[in-house]
Design brief:
mainly alpha
Length: 179
């Protein structure tokens, strides 16, 4: 099928305007035929040759209308192909939208899990702070108790040393007395 008529029509008015213009031209042709017929009847002449010409004009108009119908059918077929392609694109877009919705749902689940983890981490930090505080308290208590015990040990050692000196002095004095 020749593509040129479509190319010639593509740059002008819309399809509907072209079709209606063609029908208007056809109507104008019929109006012209009607005018000629009225003229012939008013003159009261022999109408056979006029009718033959009118019939010929009508036949030509019929052929033109047939051509217009063929072109309209070709355009309808092309529109049908385009509609099928658009439907295919729409179903692909719908599939993509469904996939995006699935991804969004998964992201929502992940966000919820991250939120739970963040809450748990915050709880762990609080627990860590409490444990650290308890550890510091335990450390202070341990240092205090060790210091107290070391003080006791030192006091005992000092007392023993003093006792040993006293004993040593007494032994020295006894040795002097005995000697």
């Amino acid at each position: 099928m020749n593509e040129e008529p479509t190319k010639n029509l593509a740059g002008s008015n819309s399809f509907e305007e072209r079709v209606f213009a063609r029908f208007d031209a056809t109507d104008a042709g019929f109006d012209a035929v009607d005018a000629r017929l009225e003229k012939l009847e008013s003159r009261s002449r022999d109408t056979k040759p006029i009718w033959e010409r009118a019939l010929k004009a009508i036949m030509e108009m019929g052929l033109e209308v047939g051509e217009v119908k063929n072109k309209v059918n070709a355009i309808e077929q092309r529109v049908g192909v385009i509609e099928n392609k658009v439907e295919g694109i729409e179903s692909k877009v719908e599939g993509i939208e469904n996939k995006v919705e699935g991804i969004e749902n998964k992201v929502g689940v992940i966000e919820n899990k991250v939120s739970v983890i963040e809450t748990e981490v915050a709880g762990m930090r609080t627990d860590y702070g409490g444990i650290r505080s308890e550890f510091e308290d335990l450390k202070r208590e341990l240092v205090r108790q060790l210091t107290r015990r070391l003080d006791l040990v030192l006091k005992t050692m000092v007392d023993h040393r003093d006792d040993l000196r006293d004993a040593d002095e007494r032994i020295t004095q006894l040795e002097i007395k005995l000697a």
